[in-house]
Amino acid sequence: MTSVPAARVPLLDFPSTSAGALVDALRAHSCVFLTGLDEFSAAGSFGADLAAMVGSAREFFGQAPDEKARVRWSGTGEWTGWQPLYEGGADALLLERYELALPDPAGFGSDAEWAAGFPLWPRDPATMAATWAAYYRTARALTDRIVEMIAEAVGLPAADLPSWTTRQHSNLCVNHYLAQPDAPGPGQTRQRAHADIGGITLLWADGRAGLEAAIGPNGAWAPVEFPPGAVLLQAGDLLHLWTRGLIPKNLHRVVNPPRTPGLPQTDRYSVVFFHHPDLDTWVAPAADGVGAANGAAAQAGDGVTARDHVLARQRAAYTLP
After folding, report:
1. Contact at 8 Å (CB) between 11 and 230?
2. CB-based burial of residue 26 (10 Å sphere; 0-12 exposed, 13-18 middle, 19+ buried)?
3. pTM of the model
4. pLDDT tens, position by position, 22-76
5. 46 belongs to a structural domain
6. Which range of residues forms the domain containing residue 73?
7. How far is the C-alpha of 62 from the C-alpha of 65, rounded, in Å?
């Protein structure tokens, strides 16, 4: 696939968007920009929650590798902690990331108590647990509402919803794409083409170019440019399965920046909230008729345990040394 001019990803003001309009946009593009999200923030400002979290992430990534290695992912189980993907050899992805997962916040006396159960918080910056927990709560509330709207518009089984909302399993991640003072080697890039593992993804990026999605004419790669104050909602594998193919999964990648003489190479940050259903959930296509409009009929018995799917996709994606 070749690149085309920037795609016109729909931009929806979330408070005034109907469930049907949201699903129509996802069906047509597999992703959509959302604005007007302050109601989901405990502090009343989605942007402030996000900015505080990004600030602490920048401080963390600015530390020496030996310090970050104190909270490195063990290499087994679900991705958590620091992951220096740039160490992966000749075809390594040119980034590092930090990722965490927290349970349902209900039943905890405070966000500090809620966050304290995660074992891989770094010592510095001291603000990291508080700022990440605040944004995590905000994103979790938003994805609850998005899934409810999708289920309403598509007619998904009401009995399925608790696994995707109150019992959702989600990961919060910041990607730090390294500056490239030297030209990358053959096959090295910031992120290879993929669709996300789970149900839906909330993505924010710092405005620097690089994200492309296969949403141009005939599925061509198109640059995705973030409007101010917007987050990108992307459909993943498990939502595609649950909706019987009605909502396409969003195929995307992050390409290396252009090498323009006289202009310095810069790094890039993105914040990703990966929403999944409860990992013990059996995800199968909904009953006959759901999603039939695009001809994506599922075979009897199709389905997968969310945990098995997540871990299989992780193994296929990359292995750290």
Report:
1. yes
2. buried
3. 0.91
4. 999 999 999 999 999 999 999 999 999 999 999 999 999 999 999 999 999 998 8
5. yes
6. 11-257+265-317
7. 9
